[in-house]
Amino acid sequence: MNTNADFSQRVVVHSQQQPWVASPMPGVDRRPLDRVGDEVARATTIVRYAPGSEFSPHVHTGGEEFIVLEGVFQDQHGDFPAGSYVRNPPQSSHKPGSDEGCIIFVKLWQFNPDDRQHINIPARVDSTLVSNEFMPPAIGNVCKELYRDEFEVVSVYELAPNSVLELGAAKGLEALVLDGEFHESSDTLEKHSWLRLPIGSSLHGRAGKKGARMWIKTEHLPFVDEQIVRVKNT
């Protein structure tokens, strides 16, 4: 199954307007953003766990990266409240679920295959980021870098009301609006809207009147073809 699989194109998905699609596990539903593959896939997805739902134990052969959007995500390593950012590297395993229910934004099979670093950034890592409650800065923009290597850079941006954000996207860019609104090109991206810009692009946009908080990844799209090959060879 392919969804938004042409990575040379700009893509916007207003995920809040998309229907939930049942996964093979009862109580776990998905909103696909991009996907190449069947049940094993290079995928970017918003996933909803109903209260008391869980997945069976499994290995993430290609790695798993996620940020908790709502509720509390859980596995054998602990509880991850809204705002938590987690990277489970290739060959890691867990048994995910949620007692109270949760929604996460998750990316699968998008790691350097040699990466073995576990990352867990709690919901509040300093006085401003990445808390569950959004308080935009009075002026300007604040950036908190979550992860960086030679393959990708991941950050959370907090944007003051009506402030402008300009970023280079020579190697592609993805953005998920966590709170507020962001205006880019002719689109208004609201909470949980997702944007992907192709290689050779640039981002020029403006926060809404109440500001915006955004998860942004750059530098990563040149490696998509290699990731897809690894999925197909699994």
From TrEMBL:
Database matches in Pfam families: Cupin_7
Give residue ranges for domain ChrR-like cupin: 9-111
The entry's protein name is: Cupin
InterPro entries per UniProt: ChrR-like_cupin_dom (IPR025979), RmlC-like_jellyroll (IPR014710), RmlC_Cupin_sf (IPR011051)
Q: Which organism is it from?
A: Paraglaciecola chathamensis
